[in-house]
């Protein structure tokens, strides 16, 4: 987070905040499960944290208010295998791979499901990304398929095969 001069990092189930200049640890937080990904919101107000999901517990996508350091009580559900998460450019939505060979788009304010990206992958989605404009979403899966969707989750009939797992 450039505005605050803080760098977030993780290993295992530990989240650390470091001073950007000295890299000294400012704070450390332990979560109950492994951290898969961290992403600052484009507006710099929140940190999205993706934990390893469990089937019956919808708490693997968590948002931290960077001003207060508090985790929102509303949470989402990601996947039980590593994958990234991404913010829409306007900081209003978060997309995360889900356990149904697709991805879930959450409203960042309420953590309610806005849309689902589904029906075009036959294996776990491992990578999600918004376009810079926010008009499109790209998903990649463990078998190497890449699909293009609009920001509402409608498949755009554009896909290609890379024939190896998409990791980023």
Structural description of this entry:
The chain is an all-beta fold and 168 residues long. The chain contains no helices and 14 strands. It has strands at 6-11, 14-19, 25-30, 35-40, 46-51, 61-65, 86-87, 93-97, 103-107, 113-117, 125-130, 136-141, 145-150, 155-161. The strands form 4 sheets. It has a 4-stranded antiparallel sheet with strand order 7-8-9-10, with no helix packed on it. The protein is globular and about 45 Å long. The two termini are 21 Å apart. The mean pLDDT is 93.
Topology:
Layout: E1 6-11, E2 14-19, E3 25-30, E4 35-40, E5 46-51, E6 61-65, E7 86-87, E8 93-97, E9 103-107, E10 113-117, E11 125-130, E12 136-141, E13 145-150, E14 155-161
Antiparallel strand pairs: 1-2, 2-3, 4-5, 5-6, 7-8, 8-9, 9-10, 11-12, 12-13, 13-14
What structural class do you assign from the helix and strand content?
Answer: mainly beta
Over all CA atoms, what is the radius of gyration?
16 Å
The backbone outline, from C-alpha atoms, is globular
- Average pLDDT metric: 93
| Helicity range | under 10%
Order of helices and strands: EEEEEEEEEEEEEE
Number of strands: 14
The tally of helices reads: 0
What is the makeup of the main sheet?
4 strands, antiparallel
Which segments are poorly predicted (pLDDT under 50) over 5 or more consecutive residues?
none
Distance between the termini: 21 Å
What key attributes describe this structure?
168 residues; mainly beta; four-stranded antiparallel sheet; 46% strand; globular
Describe the structure concisely.
With 168 residues, this protein is mainly β. It has no helices and 14 strands.
């Amino acid at each position: 987070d450039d505005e605050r001069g803080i760098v977030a990092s993780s290993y295992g189930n530990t989240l650390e905040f470091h001073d950007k200049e000295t890299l000294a640890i400012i704070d450390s937080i332990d979560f109950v499960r492994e951290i898969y990904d961290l992403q600052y919101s484009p507006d710099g107000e929140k940190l999205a944290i993706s934990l390893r999901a469990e089937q019956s517990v919808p708490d693997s996508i968590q948002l931290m208010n960077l001003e207060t350091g508090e985790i929102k009580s509303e949470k989402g559900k990601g996947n039980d295998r590593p994958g990234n998460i991404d913010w829409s450019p306007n900081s209003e939505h978060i997309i995360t791979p889900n356990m149904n060979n697709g991805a879930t788009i959450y409203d960042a304010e309420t953590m309610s499901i806005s849309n689902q990206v589904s029906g075009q992958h036959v294996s776990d989605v491992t990578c999600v990304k918004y376009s810079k404009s926010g008009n499109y979403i790209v998903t990649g899966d463990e078998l190497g398929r890449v699909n293009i969707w609009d920001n509402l989750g409608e498949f755009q009939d554009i896909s290609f095969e890379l024939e190896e797992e998409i990791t980023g």
